[in-house]
Amino acid sequence: MPKNQLSFDTITDNLLVGRTPRIDDYTLLQTLGVELIINMRAERFAVPRRARRSIRTIWIPTIDHRLFPIHSQHIVRAVEDAADVMSGGGKVYVYCRAGRHRSVMMACAILIAQGYSIELAMALLKNKRLVADPERAHIHKAILEFANYWQSR
User: Fold this and answer.
1) Burial environment of residue 122 by CB neighbours within 10 A (0 to 12, 13 to 18, 19 or more)
2) What DSSP state is assigned to residue 21?
3) Following CA atoms 48, 64, 127, 79 in sequence, which dihedral angle do they give, to the nearest 10 degrees?
4) How much is the average pLDDT of 46-60?
5) Would you say residue 96 lies in a domain?
6) Structural domain count, the chain
7) What local confidence, expressed as pLDDT, does residue 49 receive?
């Protein structure tokens, strides 16, 4: 894959996980039917004006480090919004810098909210996105905490 091409993988028919899109990548995301983008990076990135009409974005500023945990209550709204988009047939694109940790955690949370078991959600991510690392200690912990939080609601 050329270095400047968007790196992502389709996890389910309506859920895509990848790295940070460039401005030019939004045309591809629109073509794919993406209606919601969840940014899991600490930085907020510009969305091209032409994409703002058809793609909504959610920014959840996170840092990929064990000292900065991802709290379940901070991601619930994004999980609920993703479920709404996906139930209507739209697609959700979740990203972080490399699409290995924070985006994988969010994708697992979305799948868990849809009824997947923790194990199945993690296995699906690892199988569909080979660079995914949901077993990294701080990411795995965040996935488990989200599952417990979601089930206790």
Assistant:
1) buried
2) P
3) -60
4) 88
5) yes
6) 1
7) 81
